[in-house]
Amino acid sequence: MDRPSSAAPHPITLDDVRGAHKMLSGVARMTAMETSRHLSSLVGAPVHLKCENLQRTGSFKIRGAYVRIAGLSPEERAAGVVAASAGNHAQGVALAASLLGVRSTVFMPVGAPLPKVAATRDYGAEVRLHGAVVDETLRAAIEYAEQTGAVFIHPFDHPDIIAGQGTVGLEILEQCPEVRTILVGVGGGGLAAGVAVAVKALRPDVRVVGVQAAGAAAYPPSLTAGHPVSLGSVATMADGIMVGRPGDVPFAVIRDLLDDVVTVSEDQLSSALLLCLERAKLVVEPAGASPVAALLAAPHAYEGPVVALLSGGNVDPLLMQRILRHGMSAAGRYLSLRLRLTDRPGALATLLGVLSVVDANVLDVSHVRTDPRLGLTEAEVELHLETKGPEHCAAVGAALEDAGYVVIA
């Protein structure tokens, strides 16, 4: 990626990140660095997972939020802070404010997952549900700040936030001094910018690569244009990096310091989340799994040792259920199909017998007899099967065809 030089020096320096690191002593954990044998064999070089999903509040956000609030004047602290978030930033601000004795109000969308709302309240914030989407929630939080004098804590577009997030980069260099490539998810850009500031100042030879969801990839067009560009719409399961416009402050850093920004698909995100759960035994949200998705998409594109930064693990259980099913489908381990059969006693048992012979695990069966599309003696069956991979899926289809069944979807 060609990076034009910035006309002005960056507002965040290595000294800022080091200062944030001292400030966070005893507040943020130095999270574990785990080696992934599976990913290492895939890449052909050591791959390590930096587990910010095990950080306090379940993500890296406590780092930047604490540094930002700790830097407020006594008068600003007395006025309280306000934030808008659907999850991770909300919890980071709530805990940071509580630790510093500052009153916090957090606006969250009406449809925010109940576990995230409950956690934000438990960390000490007053939660106000407003708006159907985060943009509406954000406007409400800004209006509240204007009306009350509370300080608005932006999730990524502030130097203190970026300095706090950059402490992850210092830890990576300490825990894996031989690192050659760092992969980090990118939404607004605060985490990637902070990591880049720390790493490039100390180890300019290390390649830092940002990863965005293809359905919310604002950085590639912005970097081409040379300034932040707003996307017309965003859509991805990775809500932690679902940002339609880069932040002005992190954009300048990322433009100058990041080596590349790549995108990953929804299938790759869900497969990565499934891999983290099954092989690494780590619960990771889709945004946190994005670096692993990049490795799955292009395993030989990155010089090792590689560190994949798992930014968070706050995933709603209902969403997790859907994502895991999607991930199994993407990996060829989940098969959904519909077929018609003669509506007579024993027909369904015969069908299930065929599936048993080919060792397909039946997860769910829906049997429809009454439908205008069906003939008088027909029934339709929808099956959800667990399989062993693409070859097994093909074997299941061949067995059904040999038995005379016609798959219609």
Automatic annotation (TrEMBL):
Record keyword Lyase present: yes
Keywords: Allosteric enzyme, Lyase, Pyridoxal phosphate
Cofactor section: pyridoxal 5'-phosphate
The ACT domain, residue ranges: 336-409
Pathway where it operates: Amino-acid degradation; L-threonine degradation via propanoate pathway; propanoate from L-threonine: step 1/4
Pfam families: PALP
GO molecular function: L-serine ammonia-lyase activity; pyridoxal phosphate binding; threonine deaminase activity
EC number(s) from the headed UniProt entry: 4.3.1.19
An individual GO BP term: L-threonine catabolic process
Leading EC class: lyase
Subunit composition and interactions: In the native structure, TdcB is in a dimeric form, whereas in the TdcB-AMP complex, it exists in a tetrameric form (dimer of dimers).
Family: Belongs to the serine/threonine dehydratase family.
The protein, known as: L-threonine dehydratase catabolic TdcB
Organism: Actinacidiphila bryophytorum
Gene from which the chain derives: tdcB
